[in-house]
Structures are given as structure tokens and as C-alpha cells.
Amino acid sequence: MLLGSTSVAWAAPVCPARPITFAFFESGLMYSEKTNDGIDKAVMEELARRSKCVFEFSVRPRARIWLELERGDLMMTGSAIRTDERDVYAWAVNYFGLKAEVMVRSVNGRFPKTKEEFLKDESLKFAAARTFAHGDAMDAFLDELRQRNRVVEVPITSMYEMLQINRFAAMPVYPLDGVYRAKHDVSQYSIASDWFPTDKSVPRAMLFAKKHFTRPQVQEWRTLLQQMRDDGTLRKIYTQYAGKDTADKLMQFAPDVL
Q: Which of 8, 116, 122, 243 would you call most buried, defined as having the most Cβ atoms within 10 angstroms of its Cβ?
């Protein structure tokens, strides 16, 4: 679907001599390998259309993506959290944000209502995805739980399934988790609450391998993504896949610093 007017002139980046290799990973509404569709696919198709660059798309496990970006075997990916480690080998351009809430499972017929109540019960464990940034306050809480051996490291795509079998009592949830909630209905014994109201949305970024892109080249792509934000294209894509309310949340992200 073409989401912009073809009469508008964009400052297109200079395309590399070879096709740009971009890897998706399974991530709910961001990308589904089963349907070969999602927010990231729509964003990348629009970037390809505006830039007129040739892309080669593939699907990879997350861990393999980070390794291949570092080695230079892969040129780009999306939906990434910027970290000091990734800054060594990739440029990051933010294009949406996510704020985590906490989903709590009923334990012996009752819910821990606050993080303080959860902390007091040493039998309760919290799920977390390795290398994930959830927000300053939630991450500090998780660090405290780790010191007490009360964090279960779980892939984000398996959390709802493991909550069903009672592997832990709480986990982070996001506005784009709807596809997992539909597949694993946990509504009858769980509730979602905002235990960390001071936390802001954590930006998600498009990563560009430094072995293939210079800072000025990435700045051209950043300008193109900013134009998509300014002209409403990003919001249209987010609304199409996730609805207006979630799109409003995704648009609440801070600009990156290259």
C-alpha cells in the first residue's frame, strides 16, 4: 500500500552498490513470519519506495541478527533497543517507542497489587528477556530481584505460554502484545498494571551496520524516517496494524543522537 503522495519530492539517500540486506525477527505485530507482514515490513517497504534502494529481506533469530550485524554479514534490522554494546557496531535511528506495564498472575487466589507487595513475597518470580531495556525504574526493580535469584530469563515470544504454566508470577507487557494475548488467553487469571509510572517509553531503533554505512549516510536515512513521521506516514502504518490508541503510544519516542 502506498502511504504517501507520489508528487512529493523526498531527499532520498544514496543507495549502496549492492542490495541492502535487512533481517526481521518474529515479534508480534512488528513482524510475523507466518503472514510475512507487520509494522516493520510496512515501514521498510515505504522506505524502499521513497529511497528507490533495493532491499533483500530475510528472517533471523534475534541473537543471530546481532552477530551478523557486528560481523558485517547483515546491513540493517529494526525494532532494536540501543545498547552500549550495539553502539560499537551499529548506528541507531529511533522510529517508535514502547512503555512496559506489568502483568501479574493470580497466586493462591490473589494478585500482588504493588511492586512493594511483590518484593516482600520471596516465593514470587518475575520474567524478563535478556538484554531488554524496560525503563529505568523497572530495570532497577529487576536488578534487585536478580540479586535475590527471583528473575526467570525468558524469550519475549515465550512469556505468555510460560505464564500459563505458572513458571513465574509477573512479567513485562507492551502495547503490541495483542497477538500473544490472543494466542494465550490469560485474562481469567491475570491483570496488567503500571507499577512504574515514572518510566517513559523506551525508544526502538532501526540499526545500520557501521561496516556498511557512514554517519552522514545514516543521517540521510534518519531524515527520510523523520519525513515519514512529519507527514503522518508512520502514524498511519502504526494505526493500520495496532489501532489509534496504540499508535499514539508508539509515536511517543525521543529523537536519537547519532
A: 243
> Do 35 and 111 belong together in one domain?
no
- Per-residue 3-state assignment (H helix, E strand, C coil) for 170-181: EEEECCCCHHHH
**221 and 170 within one domain:** no
pLDDT, tens digit (0-9, with 9 covering 90-100), for 89-133: 999 999 999 999 999 998 888 889 899 999 999 999 999 987 788
Angle ∠(212,216,221) on CA atoms, nearest 5: 75
Main-chain phi, psi angles of 115, to 5 degrees = -65, -30
| CB atoms closer than 10 angstroms to residue 108 | 5
Rounded Cα distance, 188 and 191, in Å: 9
Report the DSSP beta bridge partners of residue 103.
171, 192
Residue ranges making up the domain that contains 129: 101-193
The three three-digit cell numbers of residue 234, written as one number: 508512520
Dihedral, 245, 251, 252, 258 alpha carbons, nearest 10: 160
Please say whether the beta carbons of 31 and 38 come within 8 A. yes
- Mind listing the pLDDT tens digit for each residue in 213-245? 999 999 999 999 999 999 999 999 999 999 999
Contacts of 189 (CB under 8 A, 6+ apart): 105, 106
